[in-house]
Design brief:
Elements lengths: L3 H24 L3 H24 L9 H7 L6 H14 L14 H20 L2
Helix pairs in contact: 1-2, 1-5, 2-3, 2-4, 2-5
Amino acid sequence: MINIQNQIDYWIKGAVEDVATAELLIKEKRYLHGLFFCHLVIEKAIKAHYVKNKKEIAPRSHNLIYLLEGADLNVDDETKIFLGILMKYQLQGRYPDYNPVLPSHNKVDEYLVKTKELLECLKTKL
């Protein structure tokens, strides 16, 4: 039997560490890698909810919408669109021939802010 709280703590600690990494990467203008870490932040936060709500280990998936639905989380359409945007950037580290178009510096900053806000929102719901 898994320790639910340990699993939740594991995912949230990872999300918090990854948001700091995303900030550093974006500050250094390493946007693709920074956005990859933004995706990881939200993936881990959703997995914490999955564990909390399902009382089982989160699936080994990187699809934020799939994880969101599996965790029984309801979000507005704007948030779902944002999750779709982040998913474009999680592929880069896994497939060498996938090269998404990078958004402007301002847009990357906006995505980082949204990532932080969504992380805080998800943390308060745990």
